[in-house]
Amino acid sequence: MDELSLRALLERATSPEPPLGQIVSNSLRAGRKLRRRRRATGAALSAAAVVVAGTVPALTSGPGHTSGPGHKVIEPAPVVVPAPPAGAATAYVATSANTVVPISLATNTAGPPIRVPEELPASLDMAAAAPDGRTVYEVGMNPDVGATVTPIDTATKTAGPTITLRHDEPTGIAVAPNGKTAYLSASGGLFRISTATNTASKAPDCGRLGCGGAMAFSPNGKALYVISGGARGAKTVIVMRTVGNTVLASIKIPANSPGIPFNIGITPNGKTAYVVDGNWEAKPGENSVVPIDLATNTALTPIKIMAPGSADGLVIAPDGRTAYVLSSRAVTPIDVATNRAEPTINLPATAGYAYRMAIAPSGKTLYVLTPRGLVPITTSSRTVLPRINVPKLDLFTQLAISPDGRTVYVGARITLTRMHHGHRLSKFVGGVVPISTATNTAGGFINVGGAPVAITFAG
Amino acid sequence: MTMADDEFVQFAEAVAPRLRRTAFLLCGDWHTAEDLAQTTLAKVFASWRRISRRDAVNAYAMRTLLNTYLSENRKKRPGELLTGRLPEQPADLPSPELRMAVLAALAKLPPKARAVVVLRYWADQSVIQTAALLGCTPGNVKSQSARALDKLRLLLDDVATEPSPAAASTHVTDNEKKARHG
Hints:
The structure holds two protein chains of two kinds.
Chain A: H1 3-13, H2 23-55, E1 90-95, E2 99-104, E3 114-115, E4 123-129, E5 135-142, E6 146-153, E7 158-159, E8 163-166, E9 170-175, E10 181-186, E11 189-194, E12 199-202, E13 215-217, E14 223-228, E15 236-241, E16 247-252, E17 260-266, E18 272-278, E19 287-293, E20 298-299, E21 303-305, E22 313-316, E23 322-326, E24 330-335, E25 340-341, E26 345-346, E27 356-359, E28 365-370, E29 373-378, E30 383-384, E31 393-401, E32 407-420, E33 423-436, E34 441-442, E35 446-449, E36 452-458
Antiparallel strand pairs in A: 1-2, 1-36, 2-3, 4-5, 5-6, 6-7, 6-8, 9-10, 10-11, 11-12, 13-14, 14-15, 15-16, 17-18, 18-19, 19-20, 19-21, 22-23, 23-24, 24-25, 24-26, 27-28, 28-29, 29-30, 31-32, 32-33, 33-34, 33-35
Chain B: H1 3-27, H2 30-46, H3 57-75, H4 95-107, H5 111-121, H6 127-134, H7 138-161, H8 165-181
């Protein structure tokens, strides 16, 4: 059963349907009642608020209770800035309009959109750049075909012929450090794409990856670690030699059974891998992170994550001392030396559920993206800095830090509204907002047309 | 009725059928689906004047429906009786049996995973839209979809491939075994 027949089954499951009752008139009546009740409660609450405000001093704004774009944040510019990969001068933003828009990192201006071949319209989803910066691989999903991979030549800014993988939902893409192979993980298995010929072949012995698919390379690039989710909860990490593409080992994850292995990261010294095993319906403590000793390829005792909500994000600090695990409303640092969870860093209650997390190349600041703004966290003191609001944004989806560490790019949509014959007309425009890491302030909105779905850096 | 009320009635008449169908896939019975759709529309009406952007109303209604469904499920979970065995599936699969099989399979998913399947494969929401509606990360949505699809595949393969009567009976036995042994 693939996605297409599931849709057909769902469609058929809703028919025949009984005649529609008086839903509209009933909801109008119930809605009026609800509105009256809300008004009554609202009046009572604001009366109470007046009393409280008269007796209690006003709250001072602490971290997370701010902020406008003009606020000051004490965060010195990174001292050590690692060199960007060869020729990384451009951010490539994939959009929901089936285009890829190059943005110059120097000037923050958008170039002409690169159109992904029309004959295979796919909702673009994620991207990865080759280490030499010459090619960006854009991954999409075409409802009639399956996963698609479109190489973009960064020198000519043109899209190459699209590679298709029938009936597979893509879950991850990574390009080997030697640049010879791109790996695409999909629900049906692991696929290798030869970057020389742009042809795909299924990696043998990997089996279905199910709800897995997260991947990480060893620092020397000789091994690829792929999470397999298994159909019945058999969670493993598959270790594959990148030369010869043979499976070296399959490491069982002995975690809580309802968890989903969302993410994998490897310490820069190549000694330990961490797998985030999260559970959406979990109580605090039911999520865990499983450390894996890569010398012996064995899973160690899982580390419990006490933060509420599903743990799913993971970044490892560039110095390799700390792994940060993102839950719905908190970040849990893990001490790599002892494999112990350190005190939870709670995100501001007003920020909403966290979407994504990234760490600056200097390792000094961790950035967490939430629907209401970007939350910077100073890693040395574990201090949550004031949320960076960007005016008029109503949806944040993407987060990427430029290789030089100077700019955080946040994907966003703005709503343009105008009055027309007394009616308010509004439309969405997608783009990215650059945020300076030196000052933690947002720059101007860069229009890319459709909603931004992936941001990658290359030549 | 005011102009805003008229606008709401127009909107409600347009979305009510689909909203009720989405609710049906979430909860599994038409009466509850009608209640869910009605409660959703009542909540939308109560906030109608605040929702100034009319193009956001659909998303607002969908989010309200989900919140209503998920909070109902928190109170009393699960909403339907689980029988532990799938209904028999004859080869020609007339609609009632098909519906029972699909609903029985959906009922085996946890509420949020069921919401992910309905949103992505029925309500045509993208990964990012689903994440925004459910308040979680896009990665979480993808993993949940993959896991839910695997489970549904296991439960529904016989239905999807519509086997011969002989094959159908063996598959039902296999599925019963899987259902019993988890």
